[in-house]
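thought: fold this chain, then report.
action: predict
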Amino acid sequence: MELDINTNHEQNEYHTRVVQGTREEFDLLQNSILDLMKKQGYLEHALFSIRISLEEALANALLHGHQGEEGHPIEIIWQVTDERVEISIIDQGRGYDPETIPDPTADENLTLPSGRGLAMMRAFMDHVEVNSQGNKVTMSRLRRK
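observation:
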């Protein structure tokens, strides 16, 4: 089920969409955000950074927040302005404490199959924040000209 409250994508508006955890819905959402960025003249590096960070945040919501069950809603709120892109991903899971995630660059963690998503978001975005409940991540990236 896809719900896009703001479909005209005017500059500076916040947009909200609720998706299920399917590849098709993730791709449609991602394309909406990237298309808006392209219309505003964002460079390829910024598009790549948002694409990777959004992919990781959505994967975390599906795999960790909803234990891989695609039927639970994931809410996405985003804004694209001339200065920055801000995206929030909210799942219905019980949440987690990001401080308990092991450092993925530590030698003993290099072979772990997961645990790199939050680190990747932090590498590609200027700001990443997890709410106190642990079920919402808000990330932003400033425009580089």
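thought: worth noting. The longest strand covers residues 74-80.
final: tokens above.
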